[in-house]
Specification:
Oligomer: heterodimer
CATH topology of the largest domain in chain B: ABC transporter involved in vitamin B12 uptake, BtuC
Structural class of chain B: mainly alpha
Helix content of chain B: 55-70%
Strand content of chain B: under 5%
Number of domains of chain B: 3
Shape of chain B: elongated
Number of domains of chain A: 1
Structural class of chain A: mainly alpha
Order of helices and strands of chain A: HHHHHHHHHHHHHH
Number of helices of chain B: 22
Number of strands of chain A: 0
CATH class of chain A: Mainly Alpha
CATH class of the largest domain in chain B: Mainly Alpha
CATH superfamily of the largest domain in chain B: ABC transporter involved in vitamin B12 uptake, BtuC
Radius of gyration of chain A: 20 Å
Number of helices of chain A: 14
CATH superfamily of chain A: ABC transporter involved in vitamin B12 uptake, BtuC
Chain lengths: 299, 483
């Protein structure tokens, strides 16, 4: 057992590919976990889902425009498309009687459809350079290169920095937007800022987890962290930690065998953390409730 | 009686099964080594040669998807040779472009409808079957539940397939529909613990179920035609190749019968329970009080959505079912206020999006399902902009008109107030208004011109005088009779 562990550690730090993959997944977990906490608290869990699907046409369009698979260019394209999707959702909800769930579903599916059209269209071009774009569907952590991780860090670190910088305002926005407005805090701008930061988290995950399962990485770490604490600061830190843990574990497991797609494995890891948290977290855990109920019934 | 395929390890090429390490292996296995003929149709290599060079290169380049296409095409070719009832194999590209069909054998019974028409027919039936339950999803605020169901259905399909080992089994459809219902139950259970909000519960449950399914598929790739890509994307272009031919008579594509059946079932249920659905959708409390059991209606709807999602799975894939379920009803919601009309309009819009989507996909040679979803989105976008009462354009026009009417009323009141007073000469000058009412001069000119056109006032040189009609308008406004 000890042997196994040291083998794993050896592989983790010794093997270049694995190190890159683990680093990338950890980075992704931290950023999406920390920002996901806000999304979940603000009841925008599914916005992440919609935006990650909406990013697909952005990826392909960025490829068509730049003609290269430079990760930063693709990520920027994805971010713009995701943001456009989020803005459209807000606009539809504001100007029509359509409810937000329909607006989200609409943006999600239509952008994804558009992305598929572009993707299949690009794949039919005689130029072979487009090979591999379809990994954005499910993600392939194994193909992460150092430059990808650098690009992820270049986007993710500023996002976390902004989060820290506007911590007080974002906290206020999350828990009492009405009060924030009355204090003269630019609520609308902060809203856009938070959405943009969420888009950054999503874009970072596209290569590793893919557009389809990215939403789980936004929602699940935050839900797990919520069970353990009532404080926002602790929740965000825990959420980032859970995300990183699941990312690294998922990347490692999927590298142990062929044909284990990374995205789904990471999702299963983070779901396991959620289930444990829901059952066992102190005070809120379901198990304690069942035990108590049993005790009451017996007494 | 069609001759059965020889029973080997592999049902179509007779080779022992071996693990597929990468796409090139899969392609090789499907189409045979150059110079060899491994498939019963002896057509593997020949098939590869019939592809145009870009397609050939694409197949070499793009990995799993192309490999799957090759596998499917060869399989259909084999089935065509071995099955007298089969209507003949058309290479995809030729079929879509309606070039000369390549009937490989003389044993073709009859020439089927041309595939593009069949594809469109399947697309239309699928779209309509999706939009009908979609109307209720949109009205009941359950749109994202459909997203969850369409993803989770995959797990049901995969698990059932592992049990019955047959993709054509009706058991598969039932198991998948059941897994859709189960997903909703899980989401509600999770929500009911009060530890997780509903939107987060949705976001937790379906990615997990979907991930399990994807991993199961990936682990057994090569054994099934359930390929990871196919799961999401579906491929309508292949639908016409799966024929529904009981007792050897070709009755058209299987997908058409499946989706048609689901559509008929939906229509029958809709007709039977229209009243209950309507009541439970618009006033669940009243429905409960009247003893209509909104819970049953809710799960009935969930069941139908699951069934439709399964049916549409092979042809349009999981994400795009969501597009067809939500976009046309959302557009119809902006166009009409009656439930019956909303159902009809969304079915029409769905069918329209399907047809246009197919045409666009044929032209671009791109994903048909994706194009249908994009067109459904476009239809919604047009409705959003141009809907007669609720569109953005109508809203803008109404806002301008209201502003205009309000200004006119203000002007009339202002003139009435100063009429026949010593200040009238000053206050009733058009040039004074911009100062007094703080209006832009251009706006003053516009308001005065319109008011004059409508007979509210008379413009004598620079002095404005109310007409009788204008006086009535001002009085009405002062009495609060003007909305």
């Amino acid at each position: 057992m000890l042997m196994d562990l040291s083998d794993v550690l050896q592989a983790l730090f010794g093997d270049y590919t694995l190190r890159t993959v683990a680093l990338g997944s950890a980075l992704l977990g931290i950023v999406s976990g920390a920002l996901g906490a806000f999304a979940v608290l603000r009841r925008q869990s599914m916005l992440g889902d919609a935006m990650s699907h909406a990013a697909l046409p952005g990826v392909v369009l960025a490829f068509i425009v730049t003609g290269s698979k430079d990760p930063l260019a693709l990520m920027i394209g994805a971010a713009l498309a995701g943001l456009l999707g989020a803005l459209l959702v807000t606009a539809v909800v504001r100007t029509t009687r359509i409810k937000s769930d329909s607006a989200l579903g609409l943006a999600l599916a239509v952008f994804f459809g558009l992305g598929l059209v572009l993707l299949t269209y690009v794949q039919k071009l005689p130029d072979a350079a487009q090979a591999g774009l379809d990994r954005y569907l499910f993600g392939q952590a194994a193909t992460l290169l150092e430059r990808d991780v650098v690009a992820m860090a270049a986007l993710g670190m500023p996002a976390l920095l902004l989060l820290a910088l506007f911590w007080k305002e974002l906290k206020l926005l999350t828990f009492d937007p009405g009060f924030a407005t009355s204090l003269g805090v630019p609520v609308h701008l902060l809203d856009v800022l938070l959405t943009s930061l969420l888009v950054v988290a999503i874009v970072i995950g596209l290569q590793t987890v893919g557009v389809v399962l990215m939403s789980a990485l936004i929602v699940a770490p935050a839900v797990a962290a919520r069970q353990w604490t009532d404080r926002l600061g602790v929740m965000v830190l825990l959420s980032g930690a859970f995300g990183a843990l699941a990312g690294v574990a998922g990347a490692l497991i999927s590298s142990t065998a062929a044909r284990l797609p990374t995205g789904p494995i990471i999702v299963i890891c983070i779901s396991a953390i959620v289930i444990v948290s829901l059952l066992l977290a102190p005070r809120r855990g379901l198990v304690w409730g069942w035990l108590n109920a049993g005790g009451v019934a017996a007494a | 009686m069609p001759a059965a395929l020889p029973q080997h390890d592999c049902s179509w090429c007779g080779l022992p099964r071996r693990p597929v390490n990468d796409w090139s292996d899969a392609v090789t296995r499907a189409i045979g080594q150059p110079g060899e003929s491994q498939c019963p149709s002896a057509g593997g290599t020949a098939f590869f040669a019939t592809l145009r060079p870009p397609s050939r290169r694409r197949m070499m380049d793009s990995g799993g998807r192309a490999a799957r296409q090759a596998t499917l095409l060869v399989r259909h070719r084999v089935r065509c040779v071995n099955d007298a009832s089969h209507t003949g194999f058309l290479p995809l590209r030729q079929a879509l472009q309606q070039r000369k069909p390549c009937h490989r054998t003389a044993r073709v019974n009859h020439v089927p409808m041309t595939p593009p028409i069949e594809i469109m027919l399947i697309a239309v039936v699928t779209a309509v079957a999706c939009t009908l339950p979609g109307v209720f999803l949109v009205l009941r605020g359950m749109a994202l539940i459909s997203d969850a169901i369409t993803h989770a259905v995959l797990l049901g399909i995969v698990l059932a397939f592992f049990v019955v080992q047959d993709t054509g089994s009706p058991f598969l459809v039932l198991a998948a529909a059941a897994s859709g219902v189960l997903t909703v139950v899980l989401i509600e259970l999770l929500h009911r613990t009060r530890l997780v909000r509903e939107d987060a519960a949705i976001g937790l449950v379906f990615p997990l179920l979907f991930s399990i399914a994807v991993i199961l598929i990936a682990r057994r790739a090569g054994d099934t035609h359930l390929d990871v890509d196919a799961v999401l994307l579906g491929e309508l272009a292949f639908a016409p190749f799966d024929r529904f031919a009981p007792s050897g008579v070709d009755l058209g594509p299987q997908a058409l019968w499946l989706m048609g059946g689901i559509l008929v079932l939906t229509l029958v249920l809709l007709a039977l329970f229209y009243k209950e659905l309507k009541l439970a959708t618009f006033d669940a409390a009243l429905a409960l009080a009247l003893g209509f059991a909104p819970g049953v209606v809710h799960y009935g709807l969930v069941g139908i959505v699951s069934l439709t999602a399964v049916g549409a799975f092979d042809t349009v894939g999981s994400v795009l079912v969501v597009a067809l379920m939500i976009a046309p009803p959302a557009a119809a919601y902006l166009l009409t206020d009656r439930l019956s009309r909303m159902l009809a309009v969304s079915a029409g819009l769905g069918a329209f999006a399907a047809v246009i989507g197919c045409l666009v996909a044929f032209i671009l040679d791109a994903s048909i399902a994706g194009a249908m979803a994009a067109m459904a989105g476009l239809v919604f976008g047009l409705a959003w902009l141009f809907a007669p009462e609720r569109g953005l354009l109508a809203l803008a026009v109404r806002r301008v008109r209201q502003r205009q009417e309000f200004a006119q009323a203000m002007l009339a009141v202002h003139l009435l107030h100063h009429e026949a007073t010593p200040q009238a000469a000053v206050e009733c000058q058009a040039s004074h208004l911009s100062e007094h009412l703080r209006w832009e001069p251009a706006f003053v000119a516009r308001v005065v011109r319109r008011a004059e056109q409508q007979g509210v006032l008379i413009n004598r040189g620079n002095t404005l005088a109310l007409t009788d009609h204008g006086r009535r308008l001002a009085m009405k406004t002062l009495n609060g009779e003007l909305a």
